[in-house]
Amino acid sequence: MDVDALYQEIILDHYKNPHGAGLREPHEAEVHHVNPTCGDEITLRVHLDGDTVADVSYDAEGCSISQASASVLYDLLVGKSVPQGLAVLDAFSEVMHGRGQVEPDEEVLEDGIAFAGVAQFPARVKCALLSWMAWKDAVSQAVSDPKEQ
Amino acid sequence: MTRTQGYDVEAIRKDFPVLARSVAGGHPLVYLDSANTSQKPRQVVEVIERHYLEHNANVARAMHQLGAEATAAFEGGRDKVAQFIGAPSRDEVIFTKNASEALNLVARVLGDAGTVGPGDEIVISQMEHHSNIVPWQLLAERTGATLRWFGVTDEGRLDLDDLDTLVNERTKIVSLTWVSNMLGTINPLDVVIARAHQVGALVAVDASQAVPQIPVDVASLGADFVAFTGHKMVGPTGIGVLWGRYDLLASLPPFLGGGEMIETVTMERSTFAAPPHRFEAGTPPIAQAAGLGAAVDYLSALGMENVAAHEQAITAYALERLQEIDGLTIVGPREPVDRGGAISFALDGVHPHDVAQLLDSRGVAVRAGHHCAKPAHRRFGVQSTTRASFYLYTTEAEIDVLAEAIRHTQRYFKVN
């Protein structure tokens, strides 16, 4: 398998200069997710303004794929409504679970299309999905149990 | 030069067909993950195959010829293992499914026997594999005992400075690894065992990385229990070994209940078989025991002192080659002294999973992650490492390929 398919230039760029990294206030939910097989970890916060994802902030430790994925998530989801964000998540997961057979939609996934190659490396799919699963968890907590503003 | 005193490495590599494979689009396989699991020689695989094709039956309870043959193969495996580790009696060798189960067995039955209780202490170390941490945490929770541990020095050695206070009159069990799967350190068990026995504590040894690469004589070691696994010593998966002192085993209650471990059963109660069968409920790993017997035959034919000498030489060579690489930091002893054939390292600017992926693209198989030793990683302030581990078939040429593949990784990720 061609390792260049995995390490797209876009992924390496996001890895070296992650967007939106660091934990910020305010937030309505914070989650901590771990990939137990490799030990990658992420603490992720979500701040909602009404129905809008006003901020996603995170502190992540892990490989280039998991780090770049969190950075792309930040770019894609901040400013979207929660339902729009969940739709992007679905599109991203579909590509990730597509074993390289699902053509990514650049309109929806933007830089996220660079992860299409990851789908050919089953051991790395969890790396790419770590931040997304954390975001899904955090958003569902923020929606179901909003803190007093 | 890959001729080790005692055996010809190039010649014995022919016993391991997988080592001749190409991977990653044409690169020769460079298998440097033997601390994870070793490769298997033809001689072991053929014994297992012949067992299933020609002798298969259940053991002990089948009164036919095949049953006798299968029983002979299974119990023959026990004889060979007992001899290989210098066990005073074959009845001290208990077959489990792996080393984790062997350590859990010890922790469980010692707890059931009331060996530890509130106020008592269990001592482990910070360099243990999770298999030698979690069972003791569970035992401490069940019994109210306190779990304590040896630290690790900056060099990656067991910190024995507080030996006499850590192992004290309250200590009931000390459980330590012989060779660290992550740091590679070979621990000075003799001083710990002497201290433990001085205060009346029992000693269990996780020898998963030791039995494959150094000559082991449990009688002279002096521990009370020794656990290891078949698949790291050119044997099959699905079989592990717990050795224990016979008088001790005979005084302990059963582990799992079921077939083969009983003496007699009524609806109200049961009485139990003598060791080792008391601790082997259900149909055991029969073909695996035959295979493990073949594995120890294979290792004995090479000579464990020769295997150890090769491991030492190849590790010394690898330590030297890896330390030439700028930005590479070895986590664990950097001198080839009291050191096994596993080297964990960090590479500046590249995460271990990415290192492993790039090495894999060059045909080099290593492990990346926490190697089931998260506390040891935390001790050195790293979340994970890349680990290259060597065995009796590893060549210097393979180490050279590793070193070049690491440099390729650095270029790929534009570090240095």
From TrEMBL, chain A:
The record's section on InterPro entries has: NIF_FeS_clus_asmbl_NifU_N (IPR002871)
Q: Which residues form the signal peptide?
A: none
The record's SUPFAM superfamilies line, in alphabetical order, gives:
SufE/NifU
State a single Gene Ontology molecular function.
Answer: iron-sulfur cluster binding
What domain of life?
Bacteria
Q: Where are the transmembrane segments?
A: none
User: What's a BP term from Gene Ontology annotated to this protein?
Assistant: iron-sulfur cluster assembly
* All residue ranges annotated as the NIF system FeS cluster assembly NifU N-terminal domain in the record: 7-127
- Pfam families linked to this entry: NifU_N (PF01592)
Q: Which PANTHER family match?
A: IRON-SULFUR CLUSTER ASSEMBLY ENZYME NIFU HOMOLOG (PTHR10093)
Q: Which family would the database say this protein is a member of?
A: Belongs to the NifU family.
Q: What is this protein called?
A: SUF system NifU family Fe-S cluster assembly protein
TrEMBL record, chain B:
Family assignment from sequence similarity: Belongs to the class-V pyridoxal-phosphate-dependent aminotransferase family. Csd subfamily.
Q: What is this protein called?
A: cysteine desulfurase
Q: Which cofactor does it need?
A: pyridoxal 5'-phosphate
Top EC class for this record = transferase
Which molecular function term from Gene Ontology is one that the record holds? pyridoxal phosphate binding
UniProt keyword annotation of RNA-binding present: no
Q: Where does the record place the Aminotransferase class V domain? A: 30-402
Which species is this UniProt entry from? Aeromicrobium phragmitis
Any single GO BP term? cysteine metabolic process
User: Which keywords annotate this record?
Assistant: Pyridoxal phosphate, Transferase
Q: Which domain of life is it from?
A: Bacteria
Catalytically driven reaction(s): (sulfur carrier)-H + L-cysteine = (sulfur carrier)-SH + L-alanine
InterPro entries in UniProt = Aminotrans_V_dom, Cys_dSase_SufS, Cysteine_dSase, PyrdxlP-dep_Trfase, PyrdxlP-dep_Trfase_major, PyrdxlP-dep_Trfase_small
